[in-house]
Amino acid sequence: MHVLKYIFIFFQRLYYVKEAHSIFVTGLAFMPSSEAAQAITGNQDFTLLSISADNTIRLHQVAPRGQLLL
User: Fold this and answer.
1) Distance between CA 42 and CA 35 in Å, rounded?
2) CA 37/CA 21 separation, integer angstroms
3) Residue 16 pairs with which residues in a beta bridge?
4) Greater model confidence, 41 or 29
5) What is the pLDDT of residue 61?
């Protein structure tokens, strides 16, 4: 199963992980972008948890867009 995140204003794919899980994803949760959350997750553009029927939870993080190498 793949995990993707898009920037919908620009219709650009921001994040993609091939085979993040071995079977379908059953849940997604974005971590809050509050200062308290960033103290735990770091200064990321987003932090996403993906939950799957394969009994795994994966943490996905992407650096702020100004720091991405294109």
Assistant:
1) 9
2) 25
3) 4
4) 29
5) 84
> Which tokens belong to 65?
């867009």
Question: What is the phi/psi pair of residue 12, to 5°?
Answer: -115, 140
Say if CB 59 and CB 49 are below 8 A apart.
Answer: yes
pLDDT at 1: 59
Using alpha carbons, select from 59, 57, 63, 52 the residue that is nearest to residue 1.
52
Tokens of 63: 């650096």
Q: What's the token pair of residue 46?
A: 């987003």
Q: Which two tokens stand for residue 49?
A: 């948890």
Dist CA 56 CA 54 (whole Å)? 6
Please state, as a whole number, how many other Cβ atoms lie within 10 Å of the Cβ of residue 47.
Answer: 19
Helices (H), 6-54: 35-41
Residue 9 C-beta-side C-alpha neighbours within 13 Å = 0
Max Cα–Cα distance, the chain, nearest Å = 34
